[in-house]
Amino acid sequence: MVLETQAAVVPSETTAIPMEDSSCPPFLTTYRNLFEGCCEAEAAAAAAEEHHYCNLPFIDLGRLHGDELEAERCKRDIAAAAADWGFFQIVNHGVPAKLMARLREEQAKMFRQPFKKKSGGRLLDFADDSYRWGTPSATCLRQLSWSEAYHIPLSSSSSNKSTPRSSNCKDIIEKYSSAMSELANQLLDALAEGIGRDSAHIKDNCTRSTCYLRLNRYPPCPVPSQVFGLVPHTDSDFITILCPDRVTGLQLKKGSKWFTVKPNPNTLIVNIGDLFQAWSNGLYKSVEHRVVSNKYQERFSTAYFVCPSQETMIQSNAEPAKYRKFSFGEYRQQVQQDVNLTGYKVGLARFLA
What is the pLDDT of residue 343? Predict the structure, then answer.
């Protein structure tokens, strides 16, 4: 694994999108009070923050289908990466490159539509609140995410209701989510085996009706030193499978340092969520991560979240247990309550045994 200490510089890989583009949400006007109250000292400190580039642990999933010895080594590598970094990248994952490219193309077309069309819910026939942007609960700039997203429960993606304009995108989402589901099951098997448990509990409770897909866009930001593309957080699921583009932006925290992840073509990034950390009794790490904003480039990513039903109970079989038994519904409710009251997610610290 290569670590390089330097000031993070984002390479020029795509054409800049003018800020007056009508596709961008009205961040500056909507959050005017936050920008006017920005502390210049904090902004300067954030701009001067030293970042460390890293190459995440690299896993070739093709090894799972080789001889028995090589398959076991691959599983051990997956478990080690989940325990050490909480993140790893995968190749030979079985998701066709053409399918990922088609989804990215449709995603870009959709997000580049006028903001009024997106906010009016006329582009995709999913739930009315599927399109989201900014951070309604933000009380300062460090709580604001300069991004927009379609948050799509997969139970709704197969709906028969669709317009000709949206049917092609929905068909691609259907195929992509099916491929992701198969991939997720392989990863869950390996991760569960790594801690001596059976993955059946997770797979039985993380069905198509409970998992979801999130299509993300990070528009160019005129004040990248003051606001994140996505604020620091951990994921409230078992695992997340991320398909990033080639623009640098994702960062993760290891120890007290932030590491910038170098994008690699045709790879997917997997990270452990809070539920797996609790289920593994802390062996696997749900790591804080964020996306930095970019002054000149837009960035896209697609995240597949492996979530259970609300009533699913999360409990480690280890003794002593680090976390008390809780339901996923209870966990989500507590997270939302903390965010509304403080602007930040507290997470698993609320559920210590």
Answer: 87
Average pLDDT over residues 273-282: 98
Instruction: Give CA–CA dist 35/252, Å, rounded.
Output: 26
pLDDT tens, position by position, 101-159: 999 999 999 999 999 888 876 666 666 688 999 999 899 998 999 999 999 998 765 45
Cis ω on the peptide bond leading into residue 265 (within 30° of 0)? Answer: no
Can you give the three-state secondary structure of the chain, one letter per residue? CCEEEECCCCCCCCCCCCCCCCCCCCHHHHCHHHHHCCCHHHHHHHHHCCEEEECCCEEEHHHHHCCHHHHHHHHHHHHHHHHHCCEEEEECCCCCHHHHHHHHHHHHHHHCCCHHHHHCCCCCCCCCCCEEECCCCCCCHHHCECCEEEEEEHHHHCCCCCCHHHHHHHHHHHHHHHHHHHHHHHHHHHHHHHCCCCCHHHHHHCCCCCCEEEEEEECCCCCCCCCEEEEEECCCCCEEEEEECCCCCEEEEECCEEEEECCCCCCEEEEECHHHHHHCCCCCCCCCEEEECCCCCCEEEEEEEECCCCCCEECCCCCCCCECCEEHHHHHHHHHHHHHHHCCCCHHHHHEC
- Among the options 32, 214, 299, 350, which is catalytic? 299
Least confident window among 5-19, 96-110, 283-297: 5-19
Residues 89 and 291: their CA atoms lie apart, in Å, by 17
Residue 299 a catalytic site member: yes
Which residues contact residue 320 at a Cβ distance below 8 angstroms, ignoring those fewer than 6 apart? 353
Note the pLDDT tens digit of each residue in 156-196: 654 545 444 557 888 999 999 999 999 999 999 999 999 99
Residue 129 backbone phi and psi in degrees, to 5? -100, 20
